[in-house]
Specification:
With 347 residues, this protein is mostly helical. Helices cover 69% and strands 2% of the residues. The chain contains 16 helices and 2 strands. The chain is elongated, with a radius of gyration of 26 Å.
Amino acid sequence: MLRFLLTRTMTMVFTAFCLTIIVFFLTNLAPNLEKIAKSEAGSRISDAEVESWLARNGYGDPMIHRYGQWLGVVPGWVIEEEDRIRGRCIRPGMAPEDAPTFCGILQGDWGRSTVFRQDVSQVIARGLNLTAILMFWVMVVMVPGALLVGVLAGMREGSRTDRTLSTVSIVMTATPEYVSGVVFITVFASSAVGLRWFNGSATSAMDQITFVNFTLPVLTIALYGLGYIARMTRASMTEVMTAQYIRTARLKGVSFPTIVTRHALRNALIAPFTVIMLQFPWLLNGVVIVETLFNYKGFGWTLVEAAGNNDIELLLGVSVVSVFVVLVTQLISDIGYVFLNPRIRIS
């Protein structure tokens, strides 16, 4: 097991390193740097002024050198001007001699957002906190509901219950969030229909969560994932119920509820467990539409703002967090799969 964890960890580090290089290269292309210069110094500046601004703000170094600065393995840039000394590691109000030599991701310095005028770490922490709350309630609604629907549908393949629940699951999965969200707002939060049960905006939920302002965004996300997980659970349950040891238990006279709960359920949950763990990266980055639709300023909304305003430092920070979440959830999924499946653990 230790060897497995070490191998997976080394693979995660290498994958994260490669992905950060790709993201850094794409976000630091010349057109993006030109947009930054014009947004900071003025949209009417000439090409020469653009080059001068980039050189005075640390963008004149080779890209691989700037990647090392951002990562924190290369000393940060320092530029001496007539009246002051500026540098990547020199913060406002800090004396140049007190500034650290290295200031990158490895040192906990994520840079400064050009849109929010705050440290990237603060912006990401606020967005992650709001999205984590949303993710928690989505999982509370989605996972138990999906497992219940999948197990009930898979216990008796081909029955009326199976056909009904499978049809409902397919409809949920086939309905995108932006469609179900608009439908929910129109039916339950607007005056067009008359059912003003909930708020069409979740902005107030950022300060205080209530049943009125948080139900619609949670349901919009949960229903899509619920249908997907329910279908996977149903397929796994159907396969397990046709296994030889289940037939043997039936021939011995074991009651059907006992067969389902004691013998079939654990093996049927192996595949859905992996699917459930993969919902975390999807929830982290896939809620962009829902957070924008309900004006909930979480992690997905932060990603949209960073991309729309060409905020390179914030985009890089969001990318690092996304990569980390994806890799960690995959590792947890692999470890859980090993414990749930004795055959893999023995091998």
